[in-house]
Write a structure and sequence with these properties.
Chain lengths: ~190, ~325
């Protein structure tokens, strides 16, 4: 499936570049089709050859096959793609992979495993902090980062701090409960 | 998204030299600076922005918040919105700026977005963001689909026959009330521009939003010290409680001495084609008693020249009440 998609994309990209060359931008140098990017993800270093347009989200999912990070809106509006860059939560869909050399990237795959869940993962399980699960990795990555941020103790503070993560199923109450349980133990 | 060349600027001079080749600073610019990426990359995905070259400036040494000798503060262009909002100097001396930043976007976006990028944030006008619709800001001379279209969220102040798009930033509203100065490095050397002069009204050229020209890089923003004893506040009204752009907002800085308003700065957000500095409201507040009648007069003055469209007439009263409430809260004595 993935390979079919890639093959289908290739001629389309070529078409874009051809169109540009024939238009006003013919004087600018033809951009290289790929650039070398070294990414550090979950403690491992990867050397990739990427189209400059590749977002961190697409690099993680399509090139490193770390599919725990999800693509929702692809415009920084839903939070499904939330990962940590140098310990801070960001939208992977609005980050270009080629700008992140030298940064430490952490994804949902990097904070816990099936055998040893992160306390926040455990709490989401215990509190039923999800329904369909599509937004969950983004919710958890946001929630883990939130533990180190200067926010108030109330449920309302957590809701405000989590407003960048949408849940179309509406599991919000249990998400807040899951986060507060971890904060109480910390 | 169209193909582009991506490179990292080593220093400010390098960035300016690389960008000076651009045909224009904003409109159909071939070279664009990338810092947080929260506006630029979003618009590149929509093909609204189509740079041929993108220069990563996020590692330039412009990420400090420092006290200045005159008692003010200097904010680097690449300081992230989250870091600026929680910086002790900002929290203590410029509460309105911290409040405005925290009222904007989401925690993730605030971790990415920068001071310089927020200043240059593009409008959220749905027609600007949709390349199948006519938009004078995107394609000069194409026409404006917002006038007579879905214009509930559009501006009511500073509008023209060519454009009614509102400036979406919260930070810019607070910076306006704080008399910020924008410092720019360009091919002809450095220059400093008061924030009022930095933003342009759309007029007949809505594609020009600021005084930034090809090769210009915002390096930092300075804020003067605020009058001793003044209080500041940001109030934002929107369709939902969090993570939404303002329908109307107000940033106020007020100082009351012996029952009279000795200093007042008023800026409005969500209602202007640029961050709206209301000198009319300030004139109504000057030397007046800080009471409901004065605040109502100031709000009337601020909205006197409002030109609502078919769907956003409610913003006139909303902005009035927003300003009255902000002034009331900022001058409370209990």
């Amino acid at each position: 499936m993935q390979h079919t998609a890639s093959r289908r994309d290739a001629p389309a990209n070529q078409a874009v570049s051809d169109r540009r060359d024939s238009e006003s931008r013919s004087t600018s140098p033809t951009p290289p089709p790929t650039m070398s990017v070294e990414l550090s993800v979950n403690g491992k270093t990867y050397s990739l050859a990427l189209d400059p347009r590749t977002t961190l989200l697409d690099a993680l999912r399509e090139h490193l096959h770390l599919t725990g990070t999800k693509k929702g809106c692809d415009h920084g509006q839903c939070g499904a793609c939330t990962v940590h860059v140098n310990g801070r939560r960001v939208n992977a869909c609005l980050s270009l992979a080629g700008t992140l050399e030298g940064d430490e990237i952490t994804t949902i795959e990097g904070i816990g495993s099936v055998a040893a869940l992160h306390p926040m993962q455990q709490s989401f399980v215990e509190c039923d902090g999800y329904q369909c699960g599509y937004c969950t990795s983004g919710q958890i990555m946001s929630a883990v980062a939130l533990l180190g941020e200067p926010i108030g103790p109330a449920d309302a503070d957590v809701r405000e701090a989590m407003s960048g993560n949408l849940c179309r199923c509406g599991a919000y109450q249990n998400i807040v409960t899951a986060i507060q349980r971890v904060r109480e133990k910390a | 998204m169209e193909l582009f060349q991506l490179s990292r600027a080593n220093d400010v001079r390098d960035a300016i030299a690389s960008s000076a080749a651009s045909s224009g600073a904003l409109e159909s610019a071939q070279v664009r600076f990338l810092a947080g990426g929260t506006t630029l990359l979003d618009l590149m995905k929509l093909n609204v922005e189509r740079p041929g070259r993108v220069i990563d400036i996020s590692r330039l040494p412009l990420n400090q918040v420092e006290a200045t000798a005159d008692g003010g503060v200097k904010i680097g262009a690449t300081v992230r919105n989250a870091d600026l909002a929680t910086h002790p100097l900002i929290r203590e001396r410029y509460a309105v700026l911290s409040q405005a930043l925290l009222a904007g976007a989401s925690a993730q976006l605030r971790n990415m977005a920068t001071t310089g990028g927020n200043l240059l944030q593009r409008t959220r006008c749905v027609y600007f963001r949709d390349t199948t619709m006519p938009c004078n800001k995107r394609t000069p001379g194409a026409g404006c689909a917002a006038i007579g279209g879905f214009n509930r969220t559009m501006a009511i102040l500073g509008v023209s026959d060519a454009c009614i798009a509102s400036n979406p930033s919260d930070m810019n509203v607070a910076l306006t009330a704080l008399d910020a100065t924008i410092h720019i490095e360009g091919t002809k050397g450095p220059r400093s521009v008061p924030i009022d002069a930095f933003f342009l009204l759309p007029g007949a050229t809505p594609q020009r939003e600021t005084v930034i020209e090809a090769g210009d890089l915002i390096t930092h923003v300075t804020l003067p010290p605020q009058p001793e004893g003044s209080r500041s506040l940001y109030l934002k009204l929107r369709d939902r409680a969090s993570y939404e752009f303002a329908l109307a907002s107000a940033a106020v800085v007020v100082k009351v001495v012996d029952g009279r308003i000795a200093h007042a700065r008023v800026a409005l957000g969500g209602v202007g084609t640029k961050p709206w500095h209301s000198t009319e409201a300030e004139a109504a507040l000057a030397d007046a008693t800080p009471d409901a009648a004065t605040f109502a007069r100031a709000a009337d003055a601020a909205l006197a020249n409002a030109q609502p469209q078919s769907q956003n007439g409610f913003k006139v009263e909303l902005a009035r009440r927003c300003l009255v409430h902000a002034l009331t809260q900022a001058t409370r004595t209990d």
